[in-house]
Amino acid sequence: MATVTQRESGRFQVKVRRRRDGAAVSRTFVREADAKAWGRKTESEVERSVWRDTSEAERTTLAECLDRYLAEYVPRKADPARERSHVNAVRSRSIAKLTMARIRGADVASMRDAWASVGHAPATIDLAPVSRTPG
């Protein structure tokens, strides 16, 4: 069950206890109505077993993910300079400032369209996953 309490700061904290492990999920809101709505939604998701903890995705920006990718994976690539160039092209866009939880398909499409409008060839901006068939 969701529990809403008012903090000393005047903000409202809502806690929802998960059934399986008994751990609580909490979030703080400026408005009590928003806290109650989030609590109801989260409780419903927990009951239907569709709730996912997005707290890390809400704290991590795409730029931070790209930095980690540059540090951990790019050095192992066959052409690290080229890969760094591709990553930096994404890092220079406003999408890189968004948290991972906030990135939507429309954001990626907007970036793609911006690249197309400045004359990049379709093969350069193809964001579709590569499908490899065995054989």
Summarize this entry quickly.
By secondary structure, the protein is of the alpha+beta class.
Fold and architecture overview:
- By secondary structure, the chain is of the alpha+beta class.
- The protein is 42% helix and 13% strand.
- It has 2 domains: 2-53; 58-117, no CATH class.
- The longest helix is centred in the first third of the chain and has 16 residues, at 32-47.
- It has helices at residues 32-47, 55-59, 62-72, 80-91, 105-117, and strands at residues 2-6, 12-17, 24-29.
- It has a 3-stranded antiparallel beta sheet, covered by helices on one side.
Write the layout of secondary structure elements.
Blueprint: E1 2-6, E2 12-17, E3 24-29, H1 32-47, H2 55-59, H3 62-72, H4 80-91, H5 105-117
Antiparallel strand pairs: 1-2, 2-3
Helix pairs in contact: 3-4
Oligomer: single chain
How far is it from the N-terminal to the C-terminal residue, by CA?
53 Å
Element string (H = helix, E = strand): EEEHHHHH
pLDDT under 50 segments (min length 5)?
none
Number of structural domains: 2
- Specify the biggest β-sheet: 3 strands, antiparallel
Q: What structural class results from the helix and strand content?
A: alpha+beta
Number of helices: 5
Helical fraction equals 40-55%
Task: Provide the residue-averaged pLDDT.
Answer: 86
Annotation keywords:
single chain, 135 residues, alpha+beta, 2 domains, 3-stranded antiparallel β-sheet, 5 helices
